Amino acid sequence: MYSRASSRPGAVARGVRRHRDGRTALTQDLVAAEVPVAFAYNGEPFVVMMATPEDLHDFALGFSLSEGIVEDPAQLQIASVDTFLEGVSLQLQIPPAHAAALQARRRNLHGRSGCGVCGSESIEAVLRAPRPLPAGAAIAPAALARALRELREQQPLNAITGATHAAGWADADGCVQLAREDVGRHNALDKLIGALATAGVDAASGFAVVTSRASYEMAMKAAQAGIPLLAAISAPTALAIALADSAGLTLIGFARDHDYVVYSHPQRLTQAEHAGEPA
Q: How many other CB atoms sit within 10 Å of the CB of residue 138?
């Protein structure tokens, strides 16, 4: 199906043996790139995540914000991005007080594309309380359906590889303004959060949609970024629901076209049927 290599770092061409309708053909396929991406803060290694090597500036900023390492984009500087045969290393600079707080957390992650808290050294480091969320905009079900539809149309990497997650931010009308992709669902959301911060977008004026389940980490990252509504195409976890309930996050699961399930804070949806708490 694919006969030429991709010009983007998120996909690489590989020779394959394709079997179809009883016939075998030697051809090339485009597969998603997955490489170690290391973040070092003020010269100290902190985390290695398996990620798609695209939008790395957004990734570094979004991760730093969603993990509470910095509170403001101005507090992070990307000193260098070094690409090696083994992966990519980003040298990040943060204020000394934040570096001291980071050291005090004694957190040394070895992340995977499917794990957002691997290697956390204490329960407290994982189950931290996010800031209370603002009321946010009222969202109509039609806007949610539009965002889901538009997110499907803004996944060029997944279209050629079939192997990446996406996270998108839509305005109150459901128009997807920003979208990011990655082999890891947490990474895609971090990239989106970084893109929002770089663009100076008020995250509370819209909502996020993701092509994954809604784990605790996903709900935490959305809440930490000030996104008041998170809609996932798959299921949430019990801990994600508890976090969303306490943080004031509207958490939606099984969001497919016009169907969805609201698990917490349904008041942000405009239909009268969502006025009460879910049974």
A: 11
Question: How far is 129 from 115, CA to CA, in rounded Å?
Answer: 19
Catalytic residue status for 115: yes
Domains and CATH numbers, the chain: 35-126 (3.10.20.10), 141-274 (3.40.140.10)
Residue 7: strand, helix, or coil: coil
- Over residues 2-48, the pLDDT tens digits come to 334 556 789 888 888 889 899 998 988 899 999 999 999 999 999 99
Catalytic member of 115, 127, 140, 201: 115
In this prediction the pTM is 0.88
Contact between 100 and 116 (Cβ < 8 Å)? no
Average pLDDT over residues 242-260: 95
Instruction: Assign 3-class secondary structure to 100-117.
Output: HHHHHHCCCEECECCECC
Check if the beta carbon of residue 235 is closer than 8 Å to that of residue 215.
no
pLDDT of residue 7: 61
Q: How far apart are the first and last CA of the chain?
A: 48
Give the mean pLDDT of 214-229: 96
Residue 125 pLDDT class (50, 70, 90 cuts) = low
- Angstrom distances, CA of residue 14 to CA of 31, 161, 165: 7, 11, 21
Cβ-based neighbours of 28, under 8 Å, separated by 6 or more: 2, 3, 4, 5, 13, 14, 15, 16
